[in-house]
Specification:
Strand content: under 5%
Number of helices: 7
Largest sheet: none
Distance between the termini: 44 Å
Helix content: 55-70%
Structural class: mainly alpha
Number of strands: 0
Radius of gyration: 18 Å
Length: about 170
């Protein structure tokens, strides 16, 4: 699919027949757009999480990266995955689209956060007995909520404040 992604660079110049000739149908177009989203946006979050040795600072960098994306003026408000999940009846979507959304969430949030937090637990930077799955779900719910409120116009600075409150669950 990536060989067709260049069409997104100037989507306004592509007419409907040309778009369907390139992508086949709406489903394939959405899947290509989601792939592009992962390639351009989600890698930034992964780099932010991996780029800081201190666990709390790493989570701050990761969440701020997400907040910056959610509020970027050049992007539609919110998160493509959350917007899709909220706006669509998941049961009515093609299985390939549901699988792609699930893969994106698993790659961008669950897997990244779980790996980092599990490593911090093993290195004793988190209290023994910390339930990593619940912590991952907590931060995922936070990001989903940030996506929804960013969609209605909450600014980056306010999201940064919310992030600071959320980070209070992690030890200093």
């Amino acid at each position: 699919m990536t060989d067709h992604i260049d069409v997104f660079d100037d989507i306004t110049s592509v007419n409907k027949p040309s778009m369907y000739a390139t992508f086949g149908n709406k489903e394939q177009l959405y899947l290509a757009a989601l792939e592009r989203y992962r390639e351009q946006q989600l890698i930034k979050h992964a780099q932010a999480l991996a780029g800081e040795p201190d666990p709390k600072k790493a989570m701050r960098a990761f969440l701020r990266s997400v907040a910056e994306m959610l509020t970027a003026p050049e992007l539609p408000g919110g998160c493509m995955v959350v917007n899709s999940a909220v706006a669509c009846d998941i049961a009515a979507l093609p299985a390939s689209v549901v699988a792609a959304i699930s893969t994106t969430v698993n790659q961008s949030t669950f897997a990244l956060l779980k790996a980092r937090l599990q490593a911090e637990l093993e290195q004793r930077h988190l209290p023994k007995g910390t339930n990593i799955d619940q912590l991952v779900d907590y931060f995922t719910a936070l990001m989903s909520g940030m996506a929804v409120i960013a969609k209605i116009g909450i600014d980056k600075e306010r999201l940064f404040g919310t992030i600071e409150v959320a980070l209070s669950v992690l030890p200093d």
